């Protein structure tokens, strides 16, 4: 298949195009309605609370309500390991990449590069494009992110050992609870007590999509809130901030291009090399790429501000990277679809 044919196939993929335009249009809607005063300034924060407390936990849990097969399990475990290795490698390598900056800047930029806003920014987009399997893989990938965020990220900015509060945040977060519970049910569904359905088939009692549709259905409605409310929240947030001062910070631009463009491309290259020896699915590649092509984690920026460690740099970098990501991520999705059409990874 020649490159022109591939481009035509990508541009004619309505699922990809509609997901991208939906995200952009709803972000712009939130931006416009906040600018004109229809939405209050506090709405963005309120919407993000709804998404993080009920929307994304329901989305993550529901994604695991599916049959398991050896290949999906293999890819799921691969993306779990890949998350720990790739983010760990970034933690080590970014110190050398940012070596020209002073020690505090170097540390802040390293944390912000390794830890992106995977939960809030990436998962709604992944769910809109790659469906339940994409969310399942993204939720698994997020396990390593949460562990690094609440341990290494906290220690890097605070200079202290792990606190009890951070351990609580790591394991009692609604999204982590939903992910670990869903992952347990998904992996061990063949060993849990079984229920016979009306058609004679047997499933684990915890497969609520089969055994408790009355519960699964409302969780589906809550999960459906994740993408539109997250995109509205991003638009509301962007409407309240001024780009003028932040855009003059050259370091923030260096960071943004590194985080949104170079790091995801590096991940694709490494996965291409791994694919030579170990088959990697395209969904694994797409999910891990979009999870890394995100602005800095809001918790990491909050750490920077709380402990007064390059707070201005972290704030500027977060602003520039968020705007840049909204513009650039559609190109990343386009590139991923070209790779998919080229057949470089497993379908």
UniProtKB/TrEMBL annotation:
Q: Which GO terms describe its biological process?
A: transmembrane transport
Q: Please give one Pfam family short name.
A: Mem_trans
Q: Which UniProt keywords apply?
A: Cell membrane, Membrane, Transmembrane, Transmembrane helix, Transport
Q: Which GO terms describe its cellular component?
A: membrane
Task: Tell me what organism the protein belongs to.
Answer: Entomospira culicis
Instruction: List locations, semicolon-separated.
Output: Membrane
- Segments crossing the lipid bilayer: 15-34, 46-65, 77-97, 109-130, 136-157, 169-188, 219-241, 253-278, 284-305, 317-336
Q: What is its main location?
A: membrane
* Name this polypeptide is given: AEC family transporter
Q: How does it sit in the membrane?
A: Multi-pass membrane protein
Q: Which InterPro entries match?
A: Mem_transp_PIN-like
């Amino acid at each position: 298949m020649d490159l022109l044919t591939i481009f035509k196939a990508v541009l004619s993929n309505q699922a990809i195009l509609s997901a991208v335009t939906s995200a952009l249009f709803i972000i712009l809607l939130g931006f416009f309605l906040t600018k004109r005063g229809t939405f209050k300034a506090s709405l963005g924060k309120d919407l993000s609370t709804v998404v993080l407390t009920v929307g994304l936990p329901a989305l993550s849990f529901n994604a695991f309500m599916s049959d398991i097969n050896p290949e999906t399990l293999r890819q799921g475990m691969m993306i779990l390991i890949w998350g720990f290795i790739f983010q760990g490698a970034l933690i080590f390598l970014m110190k050398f990449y940012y070596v020209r900056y002073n020690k505090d800047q170097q540390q802040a930029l390293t944390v912000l590069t390794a830890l992106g806003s995977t939960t809030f920014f990436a998962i709604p987009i992944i769910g809109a494009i790659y469906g339940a399997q994409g969310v399942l893989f993204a939720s698994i990938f997020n396990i390593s992110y949460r562990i690094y965020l609440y341990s290494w990220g906290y220690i890097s900015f605070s200079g202290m050992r792990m606190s009890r509060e951070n351990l609580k945040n790591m394991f009692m977060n609604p999204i982590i609870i939903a992910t670990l519970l869903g992952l347990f049910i998904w992996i061990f569904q063949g060993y849990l007590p079984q229920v016979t359905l009306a058609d004679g088939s047997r499933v684990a009692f915890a497969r609520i999509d089969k055994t408790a549709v009355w519960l699964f259905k409302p969780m589906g409605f809550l999960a459906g809130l994740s993408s539109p409310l997250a995109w509205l929240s991003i638009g509301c947030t962007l409407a309240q901030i001024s780009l003028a001062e932040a855009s003059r910070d050259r370091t923030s631009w260096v960071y943004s291009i590194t985080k949104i463009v170079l790091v995801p491309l590096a991940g694709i290259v490494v996965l291409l090399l791994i694919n030579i020896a170990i088959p990697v699915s395209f969904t694994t590649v797409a999910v891990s790429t979009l999870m890394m092509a995100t602005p800095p984690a809001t918790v990491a920026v909050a750490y920077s501000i709380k402990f007064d460690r390059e707070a201005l740099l972290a704030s500027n970098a977060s602003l520039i990277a968020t705007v840049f990501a909204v513009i650039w991520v559609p190109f990343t999705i386009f590139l991923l679809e070209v790779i998919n059409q080229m057949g470089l990874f497993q379908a």
